[in-house]
Amino acid sequence: MRILANRKTRHLFCRMGLLVALFTALSAAFALAGQHPGAPLAAAAVPCMGILLLADLYLYFCGQEKILEQAVAQIQGYLAGNADARLACEEEGELYRLFHEVNSLAAILNAHAENEGAARIFLKDTLSNISHQLKTPLAALNIYNGILQEEARDLPAIREFADRSEQELDRMETLVQNLLKIARLDSGTILLEKAGENLGELMACVQRRFAYRAGQEQKQLILRGEDAVTLACDRTWMMEAVGNLVKNAFDHTKPGDTIQIGWKAFASTVQITVQDNGSGIHPEDLPHIFKRFYRSKFSQDTQGVGLGLPLTKAIVEAHGGTIQVQSEPGRGAAFTLRFWIPTKL
Q1: CA–CA distance, 43 with 46 (Å, rounded to integer)
Q2: Are 89 and 99 in contact (CB under 8 A)?
Q3: SS3 296
Q4: Please, are residues 320 and 259 in contact by the beta-carbon 8 Å criterion?
Q5: What is the pLDDT of residues 193-229, one digit of tens each?
Q6: Backbone dihedral angles phi then psi of residue 218, each to the nearest 5 degrees
Q7: C-alpha distance from residue 18 to each of 14, 23, 45, 294 (Å)
């Protein structure tokens, strides 16, 4: 029987067998003795045997509980990051067989983690090389296109061609940068440098970034929020996320429209909202707008490539937050970012 494979379990059953045998023998002696002077002593021994039996069982299960507590401590240590934590499984028996399988599982997980880490490093290096290889020809093309624009001042047709070429080069550069950013987020090679950031100051930086465009397109970019609200975030990436939403709002509004960036702290969350009163989002598009390269058949935007919103979603989720959108065609759209406050969970 496998249950008897463990030494401690075998010893328990042997001790219980001996106690039962002694109990039976004393009971038989008591029955045969009748009124013998030694009968009261034999009768007193019967409950003593029962107490010994219970005490032995109690000590056995205390030992088992200690073994399980040690196992739980090792598992918690492994979950906390100690990859070398293992369960003691030198004994025989089903419990130690289970411990051995847990140790095997931990070894497999460690191997997978090492392989994944190596793959991430390889992907990070590959992305860096791709970025370098793409930036160099793009920079050269921008220089050549600038020279062409200068030489074509008096040639309207060529000048128009050069201006369109510049727009496409800018679009290509944006596409490459967004692809690399999403790939880096997916691969987990980015370590977010979180710090307590004042949202008022952070959103003011976003506003300054789009101030020129707002003036050129005759649109208003308004900030609404409390000065004291802070958020633990990576400043660069959070500005990227909010900036993508603001850019999206500019792309889908017309002269005279308004774009608002608002923020507010609640009991357990910090909320950032980017809202506009532009063309809005068609109901059929709402379930798909965060998909990469998704292009709406209802959208009038011919410049976008469908990466801004997916990138924003990836950044928000990397910060442990959520993003939601509410919109109606012709009434604008409102994107809401929510981040938990760890100290208040």
Answers
A1: 6
A2: yes
A3: coil
A4: no
A5: 888 899 999 999 999 999 999 999 999 999 999 888 9
A6: 55, 50
A7: 6, 8, 14, 77
